[in-house]
Amino acid sequence: MSEAIDTSLKRIVQCLLSLSDAEKFVVRVDGRPVIHPRMQSLFNVKFAADIDCSLYEVVMTHALAAEKLGPGGFTRTLELVLKKFAKSEDECLQQFTAISRVPSELQLMDLVQRHSARGGVKISAMLRRALELGGFGGRIIIEKTSSSVPSVELVRGYAFELQQLLPIDVNFTSSRVTCIDGHIENVSEIHHLLEAASSAKEPCIIFVRGISDDVKHTLKVNYDRGSLRVLPVGVRFDLEGMNTLIDISIVSGCDLVSSLKGDLISSIKFNELPYVDQVTIFRGRTLVTNVNTSHRVQAHVNELRLRRAKQNVDDVGVLLDKRIKSLSPNHVVIRLPDDKDLVTNSQAIDYALRALKSAVDHGVTPEGELVATEYAAQVHSSRCFNTLRQLGAFVPHSLL
After folding, report:
1. What string of pLDDT tens digits covers the 400 residues of the chain?
2. What is the reported pTM?
3. Nearest CA to 252 among 317, 300, 202, 308?
4. Would you tell me the crossing angle of helices 294-310 and 314-326 to the nearest 10 degrees?
5. CATH code for the domain in which residue 208 is found
6. 74 neighbors 66 (Cβ within 8 angstroms)
7. Nearest alpha carbon to residue 32 among 106, 176, 142, 150
8. Does a structural domain hold residue 131?
């Protein structure tokens, strides 16, 4: 029985290695997960024997887990399982912690070149340009474009994923901003603001939890008429929304109007609202540019990072990471043509960015290879290998 399992194991791993040329099983395009066509074949593999199906599931589970921790972990895990290589996790950790080095800029750019090679020379050049514009700490967003020409654009501003309460895309310069932790039910609550904005002929953005249909209708009609440039932007009614309102108020330099502090919407004075350099609203994304508050925002980000370092709860950590990203002052948009190469090119960029993050977070070997990838592959191949051995796979003690 053990010989049959061992033979089945070899057959399965060799099959997976022959199909795993894509090296990465999922990419994100326009914020949506997309399985790479070549990697899709891994999920379509069928085996007639029950033993093959069981072993296939074990191997896939550990290989995919390794890929999530470090790019290239999937293929490397398969290689190690095939070689029947096993070490304890403690040994692996000690080994790779000892050789971990902080990557130099040259090593980082070399990682970009190697890990984006699948997309070709043009994609590698675009990614290098994006990193030059945004820096290694900036945000890079991949978008589809109807144009046949790819492009790289630096967008200056703080990006927030918010709800467009009115179906209007705008780009306001020198706009007034107010943040309201509440729901606007009646036009009378903000009538004084609307009159002041109309008289001053100045744009104004209202970040708010929500507004009634009557208020929406009034703002839309007056905006279409050209008599008023006041737009509401919705912030979710939950803990994340509360934090977002705080972040926006710091970015814009305005006070957060909240009933918890005894504030009234009717007490807001339009001429005391701060200006921000620019506000862009499109596709549910709001970009705020405001140079005057950069030092205040940086101090806020430093505080969030300290809280993140002390946080062990995953959900809270994810929330803090999202806030820190939104408060990054610059991001770069890479626009790729919506053609047959879109997924491949997106995958190449995403793969290289994951390699950069892994290098910065966990270091590289003296040769410039990713420590996390090798460590994850050895740990998961060891776990996979032990599971298979418990099922009856035969391995000579000399290889343990």
Report:
1. 455 666 666 666 666 666 554 444 444 444 554 444 545 555 566 666 666 677 777 777 787 787 777 777 777 777 776 665 344 445 544 555 555 667 777 877 888 888 787 778 888 888 888 888 876 556 787 888 888 888 888 877 888 889 999 999 898 999 999 999 999 999 999 999 999 999 999 999 999 999 999 999 999 999 999 999 999 999 988 777 789 999 999 999 999 998 888 888 888 999 999 999 999 998 778 989 998 998 999 899 889 988 888 877 677 878 888 888 788 777 788 888 888 888 888 888 888 888 888 787 777 877 777 777 777 777 777 777 677 766 665 554 444 4
2. 0.54
3. 300
4. 160
5. 3.50.7.10
6. yes
7. 142
8. no
Q: Which domain holds residue 49?
A: 2-101+363-399
In a domain, 27, yes or no: yes
Give burial (CB, 10 Å; 0-12/13-18/19+) of 99. middle
Q: Tell me, yes or no, whether 149 lies in a domain.
A: no
- Whether residues 180 and 270 share a domain: the answer is yes
Last residue of a domain, one of 242, 277, 312: 277
Distance CA 397, CA 80 (A): 16
Number of separate domains in the chain = 2
Q: Is 145 part of any domain? A: no
Position 332, amino acid: V
Q: Which residue has the tokens 């996979």?
A: 384
259: part of which helix (H) or strand (E)?
none
The secondary structure of residue 162, as a DSSP letter, is: -
Rounded Cα–Cα distance for residues 241 and 181 (Å): 9
Amino acid at 242: M
Among 277, 301, 324, identify where a domain stops: 277
